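Record 1 of the preview.
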Amino acid sequence: MKIAVMKNGPYAVDPGVPLKDVDSVASAQGGVALYQEEKTYAPAGEEIHLCRCGFSQNKPYCDGHHVKVGFDGTETNNRKSYDEGAKLYKGAKYNLLDNESFCTAARFCDVGEGAWAATAQPDADSVKYVEHVGCNCNGGRLTLVDKNTGEKIEQPLDKEIYFVKDVPEKHLGPINLRGGIPIVGADGYEYETRNRMALCRCGKSGNKPFCDSTHLNCKHMEI
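->
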């Protein structure tokens, strides 16, 4: 079960990967609280192609618009590991790893004073919030770390693909990969597989194939 990046074209997805549309639900304290499932697609019995340029009229599927718009899908990710680009923030109960290059502007971390401030607080509400962020940051920018062992803490996730609709911002968001789905580049390069990753689907990311939140500036991704 994998996703292959096609040169200047769509993502080719192996059969059987569950596909779901999800909506961002705003928190009363600011930011995003959770994703709400909107639609589940019937599992495909054969390889499917997902839009990567952002212009398909049949999203999430590719309809050939990448050819019409002259889509340049050159992969620009530096291919370093997550750990190589991450900063460590020491906290009260958990430490927090932060690799900003994988930010999708999902805004789970923006509730109240934010996840970074909450990490330093020992009270139960702050700890619970940091755990929530560490499990839901959809691009895997933020990762919980056990203070005593230094091990990353990840909740088990089923292998699924979420197509994010950012309702509060009125934009389509990234393609969220859950549960450790491998990604193979157009040149055959196998990217580091992580529990939570997000692929660009606006076609404009500076960190292709990964989302870098550029979709928020794209007219063609407005809803």
